[in-house]
Amino acid sequence: MAEATGAPMLALLLAQAEAQGADLATLRGVVEEASEAGAERALGALGLKDANARRDMDELRELLQAWRDAKKSAWTAVVGWAVRILLALLVLGMTVKLHLWDLMK
């Protein structure tokens, strides 16, 4: 939500500074440098400013994808077994209901 309110505010401040005589190119340069410095500070606070940060993020993404795949496989297996059990119970019920159990003895 800050993104939605931040961009119009930045545009308003740039327009105001330009109206007061500031050079728009200089203002854009200041905004760009401040944005880059803020992004570097945020990455540093998260511990992602070093040379290994890209590799770490890639590994985390791979780990998260592996977790999602494992979770999906587990649910698929649980549903598959539940369906098999229900079908086996249905066949057993039909065997008892149709008195086929006595024929098997």
- What is the rounded distance between the termini? 72 Å
Spans of at least 5 consecutive residues with low confidence: none
As for the number of domains, it is: 1
* Main beta sheet: none
Describe, in plain words, how this protein is organized in 3D.
- The protein is mostly helical.
- It has one domain (2-75).
- 86% of the residues lie in helices and 0% in strands.
- The protein has four helices and no strands.
- The mean pLDDT is 87.
Give a brief rundown of this model.
The protein is mainly α. It contains 4 helices and no strands. It starts with a helix and ends with a helix.
Name the features.
105 residues, mainly alpha, 4 helices, 86% helix
How are the elements arranged and paired?
Elements: H1 2-19, H2 24-45, H3 53-97, H4 100-104
